Write the structure tokens for this entry.
Amino acid sequence: MNELSNDILSALKDIVGETGWQAPPDDLTRYTKDWRGIVPGVTSLVVKPANTDEVAAVLAHCNAHGIAVVPQGGHTGMCGAATPDAEGRQIVLSLERMRKIIEIDAAGSTMTVEAGVVLADIQQAAAEAGRLFPLSLGAQGSCQIGGNLSTNAGGVGVLRYGPARSLCLGLEVALADGRIWNGLKKLRKDNTGYDLKQLFIGAEGTLGVITRAVLKLFPPVRQSATAWVAIAGPQAALDLLNAAQVAFGERLTAFEIMPDIAIQPVLQVVPGTRHPLGRAEPWMALIELTGPTPGDDLAEALEAFFGEQLEAGLVSDGALARSEQDRADFWAIREHVAEGEQSYGGSTKHDTSVPVADIPAFIDEASKRVRAYMPEARITAFGHMGDGNIHYNVIRPEDLSFEEFYEHVPEINRIVHDCVAEFGGSMSAEHGLGQIKKAEHARYAPAHELEMQKALKALFDPNGILNPGKLF
Ligand code: FAD
Ligand code: 2HG
Ligand code: ZN
């Protein structure tokens, strides 16, 4: 990639206008430091286009002059995918000014938005229109829909509604050379050749910049039942999941598991949180049923179900949410687990998925191997049990400094990812690869699969200006 000359910088500033850019000496930390703070970068320019035409013009100019562009949404990603590198020659293209909700089509159950709209604002707009947009994750107050689509985000509603990929009907994308692809359709069926939008979804900003999206809306939740239960461990969680699926079908919306080590720091660092069971339990599950019909008594059904599971020994204790406040309190704990983990001062994250039925064996095997390598390692295996997606994270032992622990991280990653591969799993279920996971991924991906992916990249971005250093 080329140097950012003063001419190029001023041309880019002109495209976005006086209020559309920031540069040093402004404090650019929020654009250059990733959420985890482990791959900080540098940039000489952040452009903030106000519309699709400006995005396209920035890309056309950068493409003509060989300048690298890092598309950025809320910058909450876990793999350093939206962070510029340390060289200072990559510009950041933030979508933060493109936050219009363009249309809510209640009759067709769709919403059309600009890429920079914050996820929580989309959820709220859907609710105000009497609909539901079901994508839900801890970062929803700051992540943007463009980032959610570009990472194919998962979160806590995938069991019922699928990941971001299943929630999108159409996209508008600014291509590397400045052309605009208009795929902004509301169609639920369209078999006219390759489904191009799906290529941009999950591409981590390497194939184009998403500028607008048509999202699917769903009937609102009129009733929910939420429970926080103590379980013996992952095998009990699997048995409970199966029993709940048989009992409740698609009304089972979320099934999350957490060990004690995941929630203790949350209770310490997040004001207002308290343990739903009043005392520590080694393993817990957070389970939610939802339904669009007010008449169903989901709470009663869930209570009866847990009565049976208590007798059967799958559950040893539990609390049912008795109010919206209880429900919000339970979810606040779950949603802050990542933040709590940060307070341990050093961990390595493995966003694993394996076939759902293999989760207990996978957690067992990976833990044996990690402990054989580092007996004092603190293992926190939590997350989206219903999707086979466990965040199998390894926290710094108390007697190692951050730096000492990080020397061991490559070996720990290798141990866990080898185990994932042996179970036929994926080393990135929902977070993507970014810069942090790309080398590990390359170890496991078949050569011809990487070749096909690189061929697509070369087709969409022949000069390699879009988010270089990510994915490959
Ligand atoms: P960014 O981090 O800004 O960018 C992510 C990637 O998308 C980068 O490659 C970037 O270049 C690209 N990108 C951004 N916008 C565009 C665009 N308009 N066009 C093209 N490329 C673009 N993730 C989950 O999947 N499930 C969870 O449960 C979850 N929980 C989280 C909880 C917390 C507390 C935090 C901090 C993060 C969590 N995440 C989770 C990770 C993160 O929130 C998601 O990956 C989210 O989708 C990223 O959105 P963003 O707007 O912050 O994107
Ligand atoms: C979650 O499920 C997020 O809370 C973050 O995906 C996972 O911190 C993590 O490893
Ligand atoms: Zn997750």
User: Anything to note?
Assistant: The first strand starts at residue 21 and ends at 22.
